[in-house]
Amino acid sequence: MAGKSVFISGGTSGINLGIAKAFAAQGDKVLVFGRDPDKAEMAAREIMEQTGGIALAGSADVRDIDAISALFRDAAQKLGAPDVVIAGAAGNFMAPAVNISANGFKTVVDIDLLGTYNVFRAAFDLLAKPGASLIAITAPQAVQPLPEQVHVCAAKAGVNMVVKVLAMEWGQAGVRVNAISPGPIQGTEGVERMAPTAEDKAKWSAHTALRRFGTPDDIAKAAIFLASENASYITGTILDCDGGMKLGDASGDYVTPRQRPGA
Ligand code: NAP
Ligand code: COA
Q1: Whole-angstrom Cα distance, residue 177 to residue 121?
Q2: Does residue 1 surpass a pLDDT of 50?
Q3: Residue partners of 74: CB distance under 8 A and separation at least 6
Q4: What pLDDT does 145 receive?
Q5: Cα of 125 to ligand 2 centre, how many Å?
Q6: What three-state secondary structure class fits 142?
Q7: For a pocket test of ligand 2, which of 93, 106, 188, 219 has the largest count of ligand atoms closer than 8 A to its C-beta?
Q8: 56: Cβ contacts below 8 Å, ≥ 6 apart
Q9: Which residue of 53, 102, 103, 225 is surrounded by the most CB atoms within 10 Å?
Q10: Model confidence pLDDT, tens digit, residues 183-226
């Protein structure tokens, strides 16, 4: 079968579903999975209907490496050895530390950090080597401390380090390991949890250098690039794809109204 084999944890909604569609649209075969098998079936159907490509649905909790390994073995039989593996599954909620129990903290660390490690570790033995590309979906919170996000900041900081260490260890097997750090992406669960009101959204957008939220397609383009031959010498990199949000508050007036788009 033609096309790369692409496995995507959390590929059943939001940013990761957008990434799955972009790979399927260029002729790759995708496995999308989350915890909910019905949601995964719906996502795979949507991918196939919208792209005409091949999509397989699965279900596994990224906290359970045995379940992921079994799913990946089955998917590798059906789609071929994975050329690209994307660890995108994550969980988040806004809460001050005084309202986060030890189990609440552990839950997010287990899904985001251990889950990313599990997905990459379970895939490693099956990967199409040399040439395979692993991509984690991290977040600005990995390097930018944010109140009400102590669990996510800790987990995503760990994700960045998993990416860098695995890049060092697995480079000799011809495997590249990178991450994408999205900014706020419109229409996603992540944004609804972090910026629930129209006012929050307008403020975030105004503070971002490019003055807009991103789209799943913005992130998909970065993933397609990192998985491609064009990125053949890139490993251990955290690629910011955030409209400049992480640079800091850019909400001043620095060009004249006539110099702005649409003027
Ligand atoms: P989303 O739509 O809520 O997607 C989360 C995905 O992960 C779903 O497919 C979900 O499916 C799956 N999932 C959650 N817990 C899981 C578990 N324990 N095991 C297996 N799958 C699990 O999220 P999103 O907002 O698009 O975010 C996607 C990624 O981008 C995340 O890594 C997030 O941290 C990152 N990110 C998002 C933003 C943003 O603006 N949205 C910004 C920066 C970074 P089930 O519910 O069926 O398990
Ligand atoms: N504030 C404080 N604690 C919270 C919380 C909140 N808003 N939401 C959940 N928790 C705590 C729970 O109280 C529980 O701790 P406890 O046992 O001490 O009471 C712990 O987190 C686990 O909750 P549970 O609902 O059992 O976890 P889960 O594994 O079923 O779900 C979540 C994981 C909580 C992250 C859930 O929000 C989820 O599934 N998210 C996926 C979608 C998502 O977050 N998308 C955005 C990605 S950026």
Answers
A1: 12
A2: no
A3: 58
A4: 96
A5: 31
A6: helix
A7: 93
A8: 29, 30, 31, 32, 44, 75, 78, 79
A9: 53
A10: 999 999 999 999 999 999 999 999 999 999 999 999 999 999 99
Task: Give dist(CA 111, CA 68) in Å, integer.
Answer: 13
- 168 sits in the region (left: phi over 0; alpha: psi -120 to 50; else beta) called alpha
**Is this prediction's pTM over 0.90?**
yes
| Residue-level pLDDT at 262 | 86
Beta-strand pair 238-241/176-182: parallel
Alpha-carbon distance of 94 to 217, in angstroms, equals: 25
Pull the structure tokens for residue 180: 């994408």
* Ordered structural domains, the chain, with CATH: 5-241 (3.40.50.720)
Query: Rounded CA gap, 37 and 228, in Å?
Result: 30
- Strands (DSSP E) along the chain, which ranges? 5-9, 29-34, 54-59, 84-87, 133-137, 176-182, 238-241
Buried b (16+ CB within 10 A) or exposed e, 109-139: bbbbbbbbbbbbebbbebbbeeebbbbbbbb
Instruction: Give pLDDT tens digits for 43-73.
Output: 999 999 999 999 999 999 999 999 999 999 9
The first and second tokens of residue 142, run together, are: 């990995």
- Confidence (pLDDT) at 261: 86
Q: Which residues pair with 137 in a beta bridge?
A: 180
| Token pair for 97 | 């530390």
Which ligand has the shortest distance to the CA of 218? Answer: 1
- Does the CB atom of residue 32 touch ligand 1 within 6 A? no
What do you get for the CA distance between the two ends of the chain, in Å? 50
CA atoms 248, 220, 230, 134: torsion sign: positive
